Every structure is written in C-alpha cells, then in structure tokens.
C-alpha cells in the first residue's frame, strides 16, 4: 500500500492554530474581513492579513467581494474538502500500519511468551 499524496504546503498552513481559528470563524460566519476577523482574535489586523495571505496561497480561502477598502474572504469549500479527504486518507493509511504493527506484536508474543 502506497502512502497517499500529501500537500505539505496545505498542511503547513492548516497546522497553525491562528489559521485554523480563522477558518473556523469564516466557516461559522460565512465570510469576513481582516478587521472583523481580527476583532475576534488576540492578534493584530496585520497579523490576520498575513495569515489570510497564507490561507489564500494554498487555496483554502478566496476573496469574495470588496467592502470599501477591505476584502471579504470566504472558505473555498472545494479545497477544504480536498484537505479533509487527504486527512482521511492519511488516517486510513496510519490505521492500517498500526494494525500491522499490532499483528506483528501479537505474533511475537505468541511465539516468544514471557517466562
């Protein structure tokens, strides 16, 4: 069984807790600006903007519309679904690996019981 292809840049982006919180807020609210999102996080608006750039670079969010001088961002559900599918595939691969390790450990235990 070959390991599923994993997009390291995507997972690096998701790995940051502030970016995960941004995704949560966008999924809950539907959309948001750097200012509205920053008001709900313990970071500056400039930090939020940098995180949004990273999430946009990997395709997890996209600017939906302009609101005055600011952009309103939305989660790209297709890319998010791709990330979820990747995570499920990785989980399945590791589940299979752990089962093989368990079977090997059990086989060793039955052939070499403790005395």
A few lines on this structure:
This protein is mainly α and 115 residues long. The protein has a single domain (8-111), classed as Winged helix-like DNA-binding domain superfamily/Winged helix DNA-binding domain (Arc Repressor Mutant, subunit A, Orthogonal Bundle). Helices cover 64% and strands 11% of the residues.
What topology emerges from the helices and strands here?
Blueprint lengths: L7 H8 L1 H13 L4 H5 L6 H13 L3 E7 L2 E6 L1 H35 L4
Antiparallel strand pairs: 1-2
Question: β content, as a range?
Answer: 5-15%
Main sheet: strand order: 1-2
Indicate the structural class.
Answer: mainly alpha
| CATH class assignment | Mainly Alpha
The CATH architecture name reads Orthogonal Bundle
Quaternary: single chain
> Radius of gyration, rounded?
21 Å
Distance between the termini: 36 Å
Number of strands: 2
CATH homologous superfamily designation = Winged helix-like DNA-binding domain superfamily/Winged helix DNA-binding domain
What's the total helix number?
A: 5
- Unreliable spans are none
Mean pLDDT across every amino acid position: 87
Helix content: 55-70%
Q: Strand-and-helix sequence, N→C?
A: HHHHEEH
Q: Which sheet architecture does the biggest sheet show?
A: 2 strands, antiparallel
CATH topology: the name is Arc Repressor Mutant, subunit A
User: What is the molecular shape?
Assistant: elongated
Count of the separate structural domains = 1
Describe this structure in words.
This protein has 115 residues and is mainly α. The chain has a single domain (8-111), classed as Arc Repressor Mutant, subunit A, CATH 1.10.10.10. 64% of the residues lie in helices and 11% in strands. The chain is built from 5 helices and 2 strands; from the N terminus they run ααααββα. The protein has helices at residues 8-15, 17-29, 34-38, 45-57, 77-111, and strands at 61-67, 70-75. It has a two-stranded antiparallel sheet. A hairpin with a 2-residue loop joins strand 1 and strand 2 (70-75). The longest helix is centred in the last third of the chain and has 35 residues, at 77-111. The two termini are 36 Å apart.
């Amino acid at each position: 069984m070959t390991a599923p292809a994993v997009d390291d840049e995507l997972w690096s982006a998701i790995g940051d807790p502030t970016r995960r919180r941004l995704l949560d807020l966008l999924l809950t609210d539907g959309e948001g600006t750097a200012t509205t999102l920053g008001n709900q996080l313990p970071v500056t608006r400039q930090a939020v903007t940098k995180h949004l750039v990273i999430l946009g670079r990997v395709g997890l969010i996209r600017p939906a519309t302009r609101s005055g001088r600011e952009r309103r961002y939305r989660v790209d559900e297709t890319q998010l679904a791709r990330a979820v599918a990747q995570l499920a595939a990785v989980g399945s691969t590791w589940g299979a690996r752990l089962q093989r390790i368990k079977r090997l450990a059990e086989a060793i235990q039955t052939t070499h019981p403790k005395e």
